Amino acid sequence: MAESNQTRLKRQLAENYDTLVKHLTGQLGSSEFAYEVLHETFVRLDRVPDATLVEKPADYVFRTAINVAKNLRKARTYRVPASEIDALLEVTDNRPSPAQIAEERSDFEAFERALRELPERPHHVLRMMSLEGKTAEETAEALGVSVRTVSSDYQHALQHCAKSIDRRISPRLGGPRRRT
Question: pTM for the complete prediction?
């Protein structure tokens, strides 16, 4: 009874294992990679059908090992490193928590109450400058008052609203920003 291809090729690999490791290490540049390649080669030799004509088993095993090495290198270039996968999985959720939503609603309701408590002119000044983006000059002209009065009313309104929601106003140079 003739010996099967799998048996012949595996015996060839086992008998010449050290020589194969040496040659593959030289060609692949790493003994660890050479050992990995030979392990995969051993597994692949199980799939060689007996119908395949193998005239030179040593050459066949070496050529199979080289092909396995090429396939492993190609597979590694397609793989995403574990560190990148971990980074992708750690995407932060920027949505506010239920507690933050409740706090912001409470602040908004307090702000609305503070707006209603303001006298009429400071209320209009705050609305025109902060919400409509008008300048102090445009607001003063629309309300028929001086720019200094608008500036004073604006500061009063901001301080009142900030106090009602327990916030501090950061002083800025140049007054309110113009919206474009």
Answer: 0.43
